[in-house]
Write a structure and sequence with these properties.
single chain, 415 residues, alpha/beta, Immunoglobulin-like, Aminopeptidase, six-stranded mixed beta sheet, five-stranded mixed beta sheet, 10 helices, 16 strands, disordered N terminus
Length: 415
C-alpha cells in the first residue's frame, strides 16, 4: 500500500486482533505488534511540527520506544514512516499544512503495522531521523528533520533505497549513503526572483508604475537574454501576478539546486534626490540605516497577505542565519562586486552601491544570493528609466556579463 485514502483512526476488532496474532506466530518474524503483556498497543500521544518552506522539524511522542523505519516515494514527493500498530491521540490541528510539508496522513495499514505519510511541497531530503528517549518525562520521541532539496538529490536517495533502509538503527552519517554519480553534468542554474506579486504590490511610482509589474517584466527579459546564450538553466520563482512567501522563494532556489539567486526589486525611499541601482547581499548587521530599513520592509512582505510569521518562522530564521556558510557568503560577495562593476559602466548607481542587510529572501545557506534594487520608484528619473526598453536592455546586458564571469570562475574552480 503506497498511500492511505485519508486520515483515520485504527479501531481493530477482536477478530482482527486474533488474525494478526495468528499471522505473526505463523510467520515467526516481521514487524510485530508492539503490545505489552497487558495488551496495550503502542500509543502516539502528541505531534508537533515547526519550520517553513525550506526546513521543517516533525516531532511525534510515544509512550515507549517505537521500531520506526522510513522510505521515500515520488509522484508526489513523500516520506513514509512505518512503526508497530499504534493508537493515536493527536490533535488534527497539528497536522495542518506548514511550509515544506503539504499534508500528513496516518493510520493502520495492516495487522500489526501503522503508517504516517508526509507529503512534501516538492523534493526534499531527510537530514535526521532519530528516536530519542525523553529526558524529563516517560516515553520516547521520534524527531525528523526535512529540508528542501533538488530533484536530483531526491532521486539519488530513491536509488539508494535498494541497498539502504531508512532506519533508526542506521548510523547518522550513513542513512542516505554516498551521492550517486549523475549521468550528465548539471548546467549552471540561475533562479530569478521577481519581487512581490499578487496582493503584495510592492512600491508604487509617481506616475503609477507598480513594483510587482516592473520586476516581473524585467525578470522575463533577463531570462530570455540568458536563455539565448544556451549556457544556463534559468528558473523563475513566479511567472505571473501571484503572491509568494519569502521562504517559498528560498525553497524554489534550493530545490532548483541553484548556483545563483537574483532577487529583483524597485523600491521607494523618503530621502529626496536618491536614485540609481543598488546591489545587496545578506548580513546580520546592516551596512547602513537605509539598507536596514529596506530589509525590514522587504521582510514584512508576507504580512501584506495576512501571513503571520512572527512566531512560526522565528526559530527557523535564526537557524538559517547560523547556517549561511562562509563559502556561500564569499561567493555572494564576489558576484555582487562583479555585478556592481558591470552595472556601473552602463547605468546610474547609488552612492556606495554594494550594501548589505538581513534580507530573509537571501538566506539560502547553499545558494549565492543577491538582491538587485534596479532603482527607486520614488524618483521620477528612475521610474522613467525603469519603463524605458533601452535602459532595461543596458541593465540586462550588464547583469548577463556579470553572470558569465561568475559562472566561468565557478566552472574553473570546479564548482
Amino acid at each position: 500500500m503506497s498511500s492511505l485514502p485519508g486520515r483515520f483512526l485504527p479501531i481493530p476488532g477482536f477478530a482482527a486482533r486474533l488474525l494478526a496474532a495468528i499471522f505473526c506466530l505463523s510467520m515467526l518474524g516481521g514487524l510485530a505488534r508492539a503490545e505489552e503483556p497487558g495488551g496495550q498497543l503502542l500509543r502516539a500521544t502528541q505531534f508537533t511540527m515547526a519550520g517553513d518552506a525550506t526546513r521543517v522539524r516533525l516531532v511525534m511522542h510515544f509512550d515507549r520506544e517505537p521500531l520506526a523505519r522510513w522510505f521515500l516515494l515520488r509522484s508526489p514527493h513523500r516520506l513514509v514512516i512505518d512503526f508497530p500498530e499504534a493508537t493515536f491521540a493527536i490533535d488534527p490541528a497539528a497536522l495542518k499544512s506548514r511550509g515544506l510539508v503539504r499534508d500528513i496522513r496516518y493510520g493502520q495499514i495492516d495487522a500489526g503495522r501503522s503508517r504516517m505519510i508526509v507529503g512534501g511541497k516538492g523534493p526534499f531530503k531527510v537530514e535526521a531521523f532519530d528516536v530519542i528517549r525523553n529526558e524529563t518525562s516517560p516515553g520516547y520521541r521520534l524527531v525528523v528533520d526535512m529540508t528542501a532539496a533538488g530533484e536530483r538529490q531526491f532521486e539519488e536517495a530513491l536509488l539508494l533505497q535498494a541497498d539502504k533502509t531508512g532506519s533508526t538503527a542506521a548510523p547518522k552519517g550513513d542513512r542516505l549513503g554516498e551521492p550517486a554519480t549523475s549521468a550528465a553534468p548539471k548546467p549552471f542554474t540561475i533562479v530569478l526572483d521577481a519581487g512581490h506579486g499578487g496582493i503584495d504590490g510592492g512600491a508604487a511610482g509617481l506616475t503609477g508604475t507598480i513594483e510587482k509589474d516592473i520586476t516581473l517584466a524585467f525578470a522575463f527579459e533577463l531570462k530570455r537574454n540568458l536563455d539565448e546564450t544556451g549556457r544556463y538553466a534559468t528558473v523563475m520563482t513566479r511567472e505571473k501576478d501571484e503572491f509568494l512567501r519569502l521562504d517559498d522563494r528560498v525553497r524554489i532556489a534550493r530545490q532548483a539546486e541553484a548556483d545563483l539567486f537574483i532577487s529583483i526589486h524597485a523600491d521607494t525611499i523618503r530621502a529626496r534626490g536618491v536614485n540609481g541601482a543598488t546591489v545587496y547581499t545578506v548580513s546580520d548587521r546592516a551596512s547602513d540605516e537605509d539598507a536596514r530599513a529596506l530589509a525590514e520592509r522587504e521582510n514584512l512582505a508576507d504580512q501584506v497577505a495576512g501571513v503571520d510569521v512572527s512566531e512560526e518562522n522565528r526559530d527557523v530564521a535564526d537557524i538559517l542565519t547560523d547556517l549561511v556558510r562562509r563559502e556561500t557568503h564569499s561567493f555572494s560577495l564576489r558576484f555582487a562586486r562583479s555585478l556592481v562593476g558591470e552595472l556601473s559602466t552602463e547605468i546610474e548607481m547609488i552612492k556606495n552601491p554594494h550594501r548589505s542587510a538581513g534580507f530573509r529572501v537571501l538566506r539560502a545557506p547553499d545558494v549565492p544570493s543577491v538582491l538587485v534594487e534596479l532603482g527607486y520608484l520614488s524618483d521620477a528619473g528612475d521610474e522613467m528609466r525603469l519603463n524605458d526598453p533601452e535602459w532595461r536592455k543596458k541593465a540586462i546586458g550588464s547583469i548577463s556579463a556579470a553572470i558569465a564571469t561568475f559562472a566561468g570562475d565557478r566552472a574553473g574552480a570546479g564548482g
